[in-house]
Here is the input.
Amino acid sequence: MPTLFGTEFSRRELQRHIGRIDQVAGVRLVTLGDGAERGVRVLEFRTGSGFEFDVIVDRAFDVGRCEYRGMALGFQSPVGFAGPWYYEPDGLGWLRNFGGGLLATCGLDHTLFPVEDTATQYFYPGRPTATYGLHGRISNRPARLTGYGERWEGDECILWAEGEVLQAMAMGEALLLKRRIEVGVGESRLRINDEVVNVGPYVTPHMYLYHVNVGFPLVDGGAEVLVPAASVTPNGDYPVDGWTLLEEPSPTYSERVYYFEPTAEADGTVPMGLINRRLGLGIYELFRKEQMPIAWVWRQMGDGNYVVGLEPSTNRVAGRLDARPRGELIELAPGESRSYTLELGVLEGASTLDQFAARVAALAR
Here is the structure.
């Protein structure tokens, strides 16, 4: 049964108090109306616990604004949640349309830094190679909205939305992302269930990354990153000691990335998070080791670009040109699919923060 305003309600008891669920929680479709965001469809979720988030329908069904009791959880860049029609696909053009948000999906056939790679698998003589921009194309593809609303399962009320995002090219890849997002009324966590299907006629490389972006006020001096790994590797010439403790913004900061192979719990779940003990608040994520065998933390402690990325991935930081000779580049045959799950939620209160930190620390040992 949902707990709202300190009271547990059955379906009948809640319906006695309200005329429609939207009085306390719900999901609503709106369209943004100004600037570069004009025309972008958004699903606004409210759970009744103070947990609210937006699903950007026209940006791969990603999660944009996310708040808990008026406090931002996700990072937002100067770009805003601009329409995908402003996307620049080559090189680092992805950053021109990276609005941040709690989740930006990367893929479906490429993630990480720009590269040029073979395209002979598509048997088109005019395109023997293909260029891949930063983090691929999927986060700048609009979804087909297939449904949203609420449903009752006994005395539990579930808010949900479903969409399909197609990345395709004539004589090229045809990959379909099917995404379902669910959250219970009264809860402060959301669950994402993804399926990536090769709907084309060619064997196609597949790479996938959840770019989870945590921002101020959770990200602040003294906040701590929690990772379930005995050791991490810096992706550059910078120190490892003390890297999990966050510092204040700096105008000259240059991004740092630390990657690792996460340790999973007995059932295959990997917990990772970021906590701010001064606020008594944190955010966590749960993913599956067999789906995402690599993870990293992106630390961008710069003025105005003050964000920490908690990023589970199918591949290592070195990208596709490293993955192929290792035998780690996934290739989907026609009709083949891969499934992924991700849970994102709020940690609140000193005891809850301590319990989650202990859960992660046990795996790190």
Summary: DSSP finds three helices and 25 strands in the chain. The chain has a mean pLDDT of 97.
